[in-house]
């Protein structure tokens, strides 16, 4: 079992974590600590519990904003996929029409070639 020592608002806390998670836990605590320090500068020494609660609310607000951003990006991705699918279908339709026109042109050219071959002088 790993351990990390964290200091928030001049108080030291010993936290346990899974082996290998120490540096991640320390980073998280440092992030919260920066918010606690910001709250202490803004509001003064209003007590550890209140400062940590206010910092937690700020971090939770950041999390909720990021979650909304992720949902928005997911919606945009789904729309882009739908648009791509519609574009792909449109491209297939245009390609099919193009092949049909090329086929028609080939038939007409073969007909012209046959007439030219059958009547090399052109009747003049």
From TrEMBL:
Cross-referenced Gene3D superfamilies, in alphabetical order? Cell division protein ZapA protomer, N-terminal domain
> Which keywords fit this entry according to its UniProt record?
Cell cycle, Cell division, Coiled coil, Cytoplasm, Septation
Give the InterPro entries listed for this entry: Cell_div_ZapA-like, Cell_div_ZapA-like_sf, Cell_div_ZapA_N
Write down the SUPFAM superfamilies for this protein, in alphabetical order.
Cell division protein ZapA-like (SSF102829)
Annotated coiled-coil segments of the chain: 63-97
Kindly list the biological process annotations in GO that this record carries: division septum assembly; FtsZ-dependent cytokinesis; septin ring assembly
Q: Is ATP-binding included in the keywords of this UniProt record?
A: no
Has the keyword Cell division been applied to this entry?
yes
What does the entry list under GO cellular component?
Answer: cell division site; cell septum; cytosol
Where does this polypeptide localize? Cytoplasm
Function (record text)? Activator of cell division through the inhibition of FtsZ GTPase activity, therefore promoting FtsZ assembly into bundles of protofilaments necessary for the formation of the division Z ring. It is recruited early at mid-cell but it is not essential for cell division.
Quaternary arrangement and interactors, per the entry?
Homodimer. Interacts with FtsZ.
Q: What is this protein called?
A: Cell division protein ZapA
Query: Whose protein is this, by species?
Result: Methyloceanibacter caenitepidi
